[in-house]
TrEMBL record:
<dbReference type="InterPro" id="IPR019945">
    <property type="entry name" value="F420_G6P_DH-rel"/>
</dbReference>
<keyword id="KW-0560">Oxidoreductase</keyword>
<dbReference type="InterPro" id="IPR036661">
    <property type="entry name" value="Luciferase-like_sf"/>
</dbReference>
<protein>
    <submittedName>
        <fullName>G6PDH family F420-dependent oxidoreductase</fullName>
    </submittedName>
</protein>
<dbReference type="GO" id="GO:0016705">
    <property type="term" value="F:oxidoreductase activity, acting on paired donors, with incorporation or reduction of molecular oxygen"/>
</dbReference>
<dbReference type="InterPro" id="IPR050564">
    <property type="entry name" value="F420-G6PD/mer"/>
</dbReference>
<feature type="domain" description="Luciferase-like">
    <location>
        <begin position="9"/>
        <end position="290"/>
    </location>
</feature>
<dbReference type="Pfam" id="PF00296">
    <property type="entry name" value="Bac_luciferase"/>
</dbReference>
<dbReference type="InterPro" id="IPR011251">
    <property type="entry name" value="Luciferase-like_dom"/>
</dbReference>
Amino acid sequence: MKIGYKLLAEGYDPKEIVRQAVAAERAGFDFVEVSDHYHPWLAEQGHSGFAWAMLANAAAKTERITLMTGVTCPTMRYHPAIIAQAAATLAILSDGRFTLGVGSGERLNEHVIGGGWPAVHVRQEMLREALEIIRLLWSGGYHSYDGQYLEIAEARVFDLPPELPEIVVAAGGPKAAKIAADLGDGIFNTEDDPSVLEAYASEGGKGPRYCEVMMAYAGREQDAVAAAREKMRFGLTGWKVMAELPNPGSFDAATATVTEDDIRQNFSCGPDPESHIKSVQNYVNAGFDHLTLANAGPDVDGFFEFFTSELQGPLRELKTA
């Protein structure tokens, strides 16, 4: 069992995100993942720094913890040739402590370049081509690639690390799970649904299984609920909505009716460690072995102390029920 911490780049400024990465290492987390977004989900969040700059700074200020994009879309806002170069460089700067998390993206971030927003089956084919390009460039030498959607011409990544980063592919259904099995080293999800993992395994996927676990810590349960509703209610819309809305205003409208009771039903909230442990157990039962704790509560440093003293030991002992 590996336990990570979600660096919510939408909710904090870039210097604070780097500080949290350092604090997460000190608290005992195995890895951190950072959102790679252009916009925040909600205006109340108020931030969205450049993930790659924050990760590079975090690499310089940490020694042990693994760094991860959670996740990058390597098809529109970025060309996969750029991501191949960026990931290789970050792997070198971090002495091999980098994992490349990738996915097919959200309109919220990718439409900003003005290229429209393709249908989901097109986005998945683009992701497959992007991963083929990244793998090709990581093999060394000059390469060209002529896909249906993406291409490279006589491109070469000159600085490659001694050991290439793992690629973990976000998958919400069987088609994306097949991409993860075919071209990834692991799979990533945000729901405790075992069916995607079953699809991944049926296609030959054998790598690590990542999932984000939403929770909200505070000294009082009500404070945790209120903070989660203010800044993290977008998560209740579901992935099909989250992938399609274009801006924070749209998410504000889509979540206007989310209540505090809705938050309580979907987040473990408050200071009781048992409620959080019970929530994580659901993800372990589903088959995930790399769990990223995403704290929606108002007290980041309090959560780190809570993790060290109350959560870390019990979570590392969890077994499939």
